[in-house]
Predict the 3D structure of the following.
Amino acid sequence: MALFTPRGLKIRLPLNYAFALMARLYPRVSAFRILKTTEGIELIPVLFTFVAAIATCSFQLHPIACGGIVAGAGIVGTLITLNGFFAIPGLVGLSTVFSYLYGFGIYFLTMGIVAFFTTGIWGVAAVYAGLLASFIAGQALEFRSAMSMSKALGVAITASERNFINAYRIHAEAVGVTTDVTVSDGELIESNWAHVLNDLMQNWPEVVRRFTPD
């Protein structure tokens, strides 16, 4: 069964495995919070491009410079998520807050509006071109990483699954629980983690309704 985050990000991990990990942290850290953190990690590249676009346009840099910095910022953000390098204090928390308004086109439009009033129409074109370049490069990097991990582990591991694992590790380290993601047969038994799923179902039924058999 595939899990979904509150914003609809698909995590292709067995239900018992994912909730066995989250059961280690419950009730200090809820399943909802871990899923939101997963979204936050996923959106680090988007956060970087947003900050880069607003900053470069506000300083009225040349449009080409704006586009290049936006593209570079997105690539750096992707490399951070791929390598699990979250040393910047508060980065994951900020990106998680950022995720609450993501998906409504707010950030995309804000970048365009700021670019237009600071650098003109060419600034808008440059920023959006930078976003496109960042997206293409990010997809290529993630595909390469997924292929490498799949060959090493023998199972398909995409960015979403990796980000979920990293979200678990971040919270596990914070509360003093093992960051080892290997689970025992006892942990996989439903009675060990069912209460965590029930808590998520009671408080966020719309999230659980998205779960699918595949």
